[in-house]
Amino acid sequence: MSIVKPSFFVCKQISLGDSDFLWTNVEDVDKEFLVKDFPMYTSVFVRQGEESIVYYTMSDKYFDYQTVKLEKKCAISEGTYKVVINVKMSTGILEYWVVFYNNEYKKISHQYSRMYNGKNTLKINAPAKSKSFRFFFKFTGSGNFEISPVYFSTFVDYDDEQSVNVIFNKLSKQNQVLRDKAIELCKKSIALEYSTNYKLGRAIMQLKYAPIKTFGVLKKIRKSYKRGNPLTHRGQQRLSDMVGEIMRLESFGYESRSKIDFPVYDKLKGLKPKPTFDVNIAVIMDTFSLDSFEYEANFIKLNKKEWKRQLIDNQVELLFLESAWNGNNGQWKFMMTSYDKPFAKPLRELIKFAKAKGIPVVFWNKEDPTNFDEFINIAKDCDFIFTTAAEKIKDYKRAVNHENVYSLMFAAQPLIHNPIKDTKLPTYDVCFAGSWYDKPEFEDRKKFTSVVLDGAIECDLHIFDRMYGSKESITNRIFPRKYQKYIVGSLEYDKMLTAYRHYKVFLNVNTIYKSQTMFSRRVFELLACGTPVVSTESRGIERLFSEYVSICNNSDEVRNSIDSILSNPKAIKHKNHLAMREVFLEHTYSKRMERIFKKIGLSYRLEDKKVTTITVTNRINYLENIKNNLSKQKYNNIESIIVLNDNKFNAKEVEDFLSNIENINVKVLQYDEKISLGECFNNAVNIANGDYIAKMDDDDYYGEYYILDAINAFKYSGADIIGKKHIFIYFEEKDCTYEKYKGASYKYIDFITGATIISKTSIMKEIGFVSKNTGEDTNFLIEAKSRGYRIYSTDPYNFLCMRRKSMESHTWTFNVEQFLNTCDNPSNSIDFDRVMV
């Protein structure tokens, strides 16, 4: 066994996850910091203040495990290796972090885990491109902890590494070989049991005891022989169960990574959203679709026995039937696919009754084009038909003999598909979620899956196998051996929603790739979460999202796309933001619901909430900037109140100057310069007619999508107040654009920049502003937070804070040099390309 002994624990700065952690200075805790150094033994004792956090790094150098220069101290091979850590703790929480670097010592991945008292045996997965690592500890709380010792083990004698590797390569394949042989024996056993010879032999043995019954059995054997002697459903199920049991035995499993799990995504975060449309709709749907549609109307899930009472009591205006196999948690199981069978009578009676009552019956086949024939019989009985595959519209019209057939694509639900994530969870590189299909009818899908996985296996790839540990039929659903080591488990959809937000790249494969409108619903959902997608070919994705999704035809293109995404975070963030905007504008289930209403003749429509902008100014030279900020806005429902806080203005001239802003009604108020800034805002708030009020400064720049993006954020966040903490600032004195509070986007927060506050009108009228010329916005936020209102920091784009050379021209003053020390990423001049997205 090769062992490396850790050297003195020192404190270093390093980026872990999304944030830069501040490391405790050793000198600050010198009296409370003790290192005992025995042969092969290292302990650390820390005494902390209440609920504090301390980080320690083991050694001040990188351990490079792919060079000979280590002098055999740290024998770690590429792949999985083991760390043994003994821990003694009084109180508090201890975690370990391992950060991996490439040959330029840039971080490419990290792994962390909670540690407990006693012996901790940890598996660490080194990414393929990693060349070195560093080891860190994080201690939270108060108390003491002791670590002794730390072993890095490979069980390899490096004096004869080549011969040992040969042995290890043979050993690592033995379980795989045994598993394959066991599965093959199961297949042969079942095949023999259902063979013609075996059946005839059993029949002959029974002939003496039950001659009449045996002749019937012989007829069945003859019939089966003519059909090619296929396995019966029972035989297939027995084989699947046997293979499943083998796969669940750890000793027979392929080499794989440690299982990765995510918590269930908190969809509504305590919110109780009102339906988008105040209309009662009776539905039969599968769970996925109902989860996405349920916030758009008052949905009544029909019960097989009580549907008539439900329709009458709830004054239903629409019966919405989705191509469902189980339907409302099994209430209508298989009735749609067996519509003409006797057991589907309740469904036929439901449709007949709804028509008699004048309730329009809508059928949406989300399974097209693959399962067109499975659902065509129920479609014939419905008034309106919607399909995910536009190319099937002609086929429907021929089959149902009417023209009420339209396309209806998948979409995203902003309340559950959005960029809000748990920043305490780690973010990984590349993910694929799905199953392997090894059947002739899925040959294209198998080929496409290999394309994306082969292109990603050199990265830190995680595969969530939908059939992992499943008891269902998996004889044709097992990933090939070369992908097995990347499997990290399986996730239910409510956990997959969390995973969406914690990968830098998501891989997508389309079973249907020639359709203009049908492709994986996951693409809409991921883009709404701000996650880059690398996909195999799809005409639909190409038509809608070619600017945002990397569409690849081979593994080299996949690999290049992944590398480009991981190495260009700035450009990718811009693209992600544009993709989110596109989805929130055009591809939400609100939009899909409105489309249904339009096509069937119901009058319900989406309406843009009105926004009132308020700008207070005492500087004539900024009127042009105020006008430009308003006139460029892409949002359609805006009114503006301009408050002139000085008697020197000619209010009539200002009104005339601002009167020609297209689609915006501008009101001008004027007050003496002795009236405080807070009072000016309050006077404007009192006459505001909008649903929201946006506070806009006169000297800053607001991009054309500033208000539109904020309204989208209101829809998905459920916040009461929206704004930006992470912002861009231009300093005229330096002629540079900087970033401030980087990483404070897409999260609920206590503070946002005053010039970006957009609040529900009712809240701003309730709280108001204090009568001050400085700090009035800060007071507003503090009071709003104390009353339980939610503040959300959205994206950093489309707002540029301008700082002139003269600090006297600003109400917000500070020491410039000290302020710049806390800013990041300076770029020359006014960098609109970086800010306006």
From TrEMBL:
Entries under CDD domains matching the protein: Glyco_tranf_GTA_type (cd00761)
Domain Glycosyltransferase 2-like residues, every copy: 614-734
Classification via InterPro entries: Glyco_trans_2-like, Nucleotide-diphossugar_trans, YkvP/CgeB_Glyco_trans-like
SUPFAM superfamilies: Nucleotide-diphospho-sugar transferases, UDP-Glycosyltransferase/glycogen phosphorylase
Domain Spore protein YkvP/CgeB glycosyl transferase-like: 482-597
Pfam families the record matches: Glyco_trans_1_2, Glycos_transf_2
Name of the protein: Glycosyltransferase
Organism, scientific name: Francisella noatunensis
